[in-house]
C-alpha cells in the first residue's frame, strides 16, 4: 500500500498548490512524448513553442518552452498558488524579508493571464510565485525566449511586462 506523506511549509499564510519547473527544450514534440511517458499523463496545454503538464502525483506544474540551442537547461522555477490574495501575501512577506521583488499584476505570460511576483536566488535562478487568472491565446507581452547575454537569460517572461519595465526605469 502506498503511503502519502504530507509536507508543510513554514509559510502559514499562503497555501501552496504545487511547485513549477520550467525547462528549455530543443524539440517540443520530442519533449512532450518523453514527459507524457515519464509522468503517465498528457499535457494540459499545448501551444506553438510551449506546453505544460499538470502532474497530479507528484504535484507538479511542468512547463516546456521550446528554446533551440538551450535544451536541457532550466528556464525558471515557481510556485503556483490558488489566488491573487496569496500572491500579494507573498509580495508582502518577501519584501518584509528584504528580498527585491518584481511584481507583474495582470500580465500575460506562457499563454495565461497571471498575477505574479519574481525573486532571484543567490545563484541567479529566477523564481516566480503566481496564480493563473485566465487562459490566453497569446504567449505574452514579449514572445521572445530570453537567451544568454540578457540579465534574465533563459527566463520566459521575467521582467517583460510594461509594469515591470516601468518599475525598473
Main features:
eight-stranded mixed sheet; 2,3-Dihydroxybiphenyl 1,2-Dioxygenase, domain 1; 169 residues; 19% helix; alpha+beta; 8 strands
Description:
- The chain has 169 residues and is α+β, with helices and mostly antiparallel strands.
- The protein is 19% helix and 36% strand.
- It has one domain: 2,3-Dihydroxybiphenyl 1,2-Dioxygenase, domain 1 (Roll).
- The chain is built from three helices and eight strands; from the N terminus they run E-H-E-E-E-E-H-E-E-E-H.
- It has an eight-stranded mixed beta sheet.
- It comes from Mycolicibacterium doricum.
- This is Cadmium transporter.
Give the arrangement of secondary structure elements.
Layout: E1 16-25, H1 28-39, E2 45-47, E3 50-55, E4 60-66, E5 74-81, H2 84-96, E6 102-109, E7 112-120, E8 126-135, H3 162-168
Parallel strand pairs: 1-4, 5-8
Antiparallel strand pairs: 1-5, 2-3, 3-4, 6-7, 7-8
CATH class: Alpha Beta
Q: Please give the domain count.
A: 1
| Strand order, sheet with most strands | 2-3-4-1-5-8-7-6
Mean pLDDT: 80
Organism: Mycolicibacterium doricum
Protein name: Cadmium transporter
Domain VOC: 17-132
Summarize the structure.
This protein is of the alpha+beta class. The chain has helices at 28-39, 84-96, 162-168; strands at residues 16-25, 45-47, 50-55, 60-66, 74-81, 102-109, 112-120, 126-135.
Amino acid at each position: 500500500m502506498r503511503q502519502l506523506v504530507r509536507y508543510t511549509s513554514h509559510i502559514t499564510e499562503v497555501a501552496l498548490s504545487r511547485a513549477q519547473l520550467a525547462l528549455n527544450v530543443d524539440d517540443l514534440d520530442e519533449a512532450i512524448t518523453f514527459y507524457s511517458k515519464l509522468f503517465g499523463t498528457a499535457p494540459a496545454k499545448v501551444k506553438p513553442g510551449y506546453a505544460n503538464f499538470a502532474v497530479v502525483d507528484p504535484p507538479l506544474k511542468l512547463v516546456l518552452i521550446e528554446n533551440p540551442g538551450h535544451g536541457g537547461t532550466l528556464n525558471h522555477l515557481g510556485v503556483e498558488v490558488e489566488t491573487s490574495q496569496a500572491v500579494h501575501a507573498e509580495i508582502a512577506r518577501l519584501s518584509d524579508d528584504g528580498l527585491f521583488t518584481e511584481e507583474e499584476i495582470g500580465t500575460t505570460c506562457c499563454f495565461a493571464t497571471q498575477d505574479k511576483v519574481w525573486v532571484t536566488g543567490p545563484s541567479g535562478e529566477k523564481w516566480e510565485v503566481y496564480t493563473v487568472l485566465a487562459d490566453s491565446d497569446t504567449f505574452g507581452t514579449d514572445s521572445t525566449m530570453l537567451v544568454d547575454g540578457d540579465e534574465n537569460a533563459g527566463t520566459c517572461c521575467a521582467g517583460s511586462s510594461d509594469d515591470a519595465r516601468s518599475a525598473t526605469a
